[in-house]
Amino acid sequence: MKIISPTAGLTFNISDEPVWPSMVFKTDAAGKHTWKWTLSWKTYTLTGSAVTEDNTWDAKSGVVNFGGTLRVEVTAGADKAVLSVKITGTNPTKAQVIAHLGNNSLGYDKLLEHESHFRNFNAEGEPIKSFDNGYGMSQLTHPAPTFDQIWNWKHNVSAGFAFFKDVKLAAAKSYLSKNTRTYTDEQLMYEAVCRYNGGAYHVWDSKRGAWIRNPNMLCDSKTGNIGWDMTDATNKGKTEFQLHKRDQIGYSHAPSGSCHWKYSGVCYADAILGAPAQKPQPAPPLKSQPKPPICAWLNEAGQTVHPHAPAGAGGLGFFRFQDALCAAVLSAEGLAHPFSPAARMLDQLKRVCDPYAP
Length: 358
Description:
The structure is a single chain. This protein is of the alpha+beta class. It has 3 domains: 3-88, Sandwich (Immunoglobulin-like), CATH 2.60.40; 94-273, no CATH class; 295-353, no CATH class. It has helices at 60-63, 94-101, 108-116, 147-151, 153-176, 185-197, 240-247, 265-273, 322-328; strands spanning 3-5, 11-13, 24-27, 33-41, 44-52, 56-58, 68-76, 79-88, 202-205, 210-213, 217-219, 226-229, 262-263, 295-298, 304-305, 350-353. The strands form 5 sheets. The chain has a 5-stranded mixed beta sheet, with no helix packed on it. A 3-stranded antiparallel beta sheet has the order 1-3-6. Strands 11-12-13 form a 3-stranded antiparallel beta sheet, with helices on one face.
């Protein structure tokens, strides 16, 4: 007996929706058939069996939501045949992923774009896997994903979003609200995204009475989640450029105990959401200054003069100089009209009112 369809090694492709294709196996024998199958990919395995009254069987019903190498062993009476095929996946579009998440993704769509660019499969159609065993579009790591969460991108995204919302977002809310402290929606998003990668984003500033980004973390803007603790004496006083130049050679491996850089949730959140805008601090209060005269007169040279000044033959009187005027005019009951005889030497007079006056 032989399996005449499909051909050995044939690849069946899961669509981007995702929909699993029909995979019809057929032998050249007659009568009742027993089909035993094993689907495997890396450490994941799924087995099953089916019985048909004739020589055909569609494997689709057993392998929906899974992929990898499908090995089928069929028996009919005393005859037996074995054949293996492959099942691969297709990446969805960004629009399909966002539609699956719905209207309130809480920033998780940005996290997916950063983690995997909305890809669940590599160029060979197999699920992507990171060096730290993060699987699929959501890079599911802890808890370890199930077989279907690796191969069905919708299951992968749903599992990642549930973990983000139920674990990381909940932890962020608990942290930011401790001691009845308040926080903004933006701070909650940054805190949750940070915790998806690890650690807290904010620290409490008791002087301001508000949560602020951890001021001791300097991020390497050329990476997605690498930074330096600037309280580390080895890093103090150095710029991002200097630290990057010193440490970049080691970025291809996880940091060891002797490294002075780290994977940082703070830098991860900044890379995904952008560094939050810093609110300008209020300017310190101005020191009290003596109030200027209520009003004064300017001559064409821009000097402050007093129209009561004598116009003697010696020229400008004492009060026609600003320093003397500012001291004397404070006690004056009022200023003379500029057309008075005492003001005849003034040119192009104009009144300047005190900006401090009510």
